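Late entry, evening session. Most of the bench is empty. Finally got around to the prediction I had been postponing all week. Sequence below, unchanged from the version circulated by S.P.
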Amino acid sequence: MQYLDVLKAFFDTVGGWVWGPVMLVFLVGTGVYLTLRLAFLQFTMLPFALKQAFTPHAKNRDGSENRGDISHFGALMTALSATIGTGNIAGVATAVVLGGPGAVFWMWITAIFGMATKFGEGVLAVKYRIVNERGQISGGPMYYIERGLNWKWLAILFALFGTLASFGIGSSVQSNSVAQSIQASFAIDPMITGIVLTVFTAIVILGGIKSIAIASSFIVPIMAILYVAGGLIIIFMHLDLLGPAFATIFRDAFSGEAVAGGAIGTVIRYGVARGVFSNEAGMGSAPIAAAAAKTDHPVRQALVSMTGTFLDTIVVCSITGLVLVMGGIYTNGVTGAALTTQTFNLLLPGPGGWIVTIGLVFFAYSTILGWCYYGEKCASYLLGEWFVLPYRIIYVASVMIGTIASLDLVWAAADTFNGLMAVPNLIALVLLSGVIVKETRDFVAKRKLGELP
């Protein structure tokens, strides 16, 4: 037990450094740099990008099939399944409690620049993807680091961090959140929840990316619409609180009055940290799914990937943040998912709490599905395609373990490895930014000439 305590202390220390100010500046700074190089593309092309996300582009004009395993929409939903998770419910609440209402503003700023980061990841993911020995698409940071920078050692580091992170942030901590939430709401034994969740997880992920994409394309829109609709109902029922909530957010963003000591740096830190944790821009996870899309140009899928950050943070996280500030009970000592549940229930008695509970369960389950694909691709990059089935079996087992185990150490380790993934990815994004710009100009030129729709 003492050994485990020492190990947890080690990961807490390393994790504190990994997620410290230097990393947050690197993450947001990369987004700012790409925004400038791409001439604020996330603003000028957002309407077109949203249209692409929901428009089929699996075939060319001559009827030939584009290379890839899943549709643009399937790739987006797979990425969103892993991205829209407990961070949208518990993470936003934590940011508001620790950083004050102004943290919501800095989450928005992080998302705006994060859209450029997600775009860059998508371009490189499709450009440098490969067809593996099973005839399936493989892509992501490990491939664009190896093939774009010729730094195999850095690619291996990313894949290692991604594999290790998947068993924590992707499976066990998510299944633990589901089990605890269901136990609190319905008094169901975590063991029973674990068995059911493990079976449903196995059914989907053993079928691979196409099965995951189908499940995600069904679950993600429904759960997101349910949660957003619930939040909007609360907002429209209490419109008198909306103006003051916005005023509080903007005032606190630059004053830090809601934080002990009025430290504006604390407001910014928690807003940025939780924004990144929620939308994963720069972490290197989403481009693994983007690489599998059937697309006629890297930029088209990159635009679709970019909308993921918009939908995750600007839409879903904003709903949570606004409701929390409108509720005004974030100073009562409660935090995380419990605070969001209480606030929804306060402003919408009865259904409010259920909306959060159901949303948390499905958000976490979809994250389990999406992160299995991420971890599988990282693991197969390290050990070969033969390891895919063993990895899936181990991953399914970790889902069961997560529902019944104490996860303090796993949380600390997963958080650390998740942050470490960003370092190789951000280095590649900065050094390959010229490629991103070149591909973008090529796409724009071909559309002007009528070569691409």
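Two things to note before I forget:
The chain has a mean pLDDT of 85.
The first helix runs from residue 2 to 18.
Will write this up properly tomorrow.
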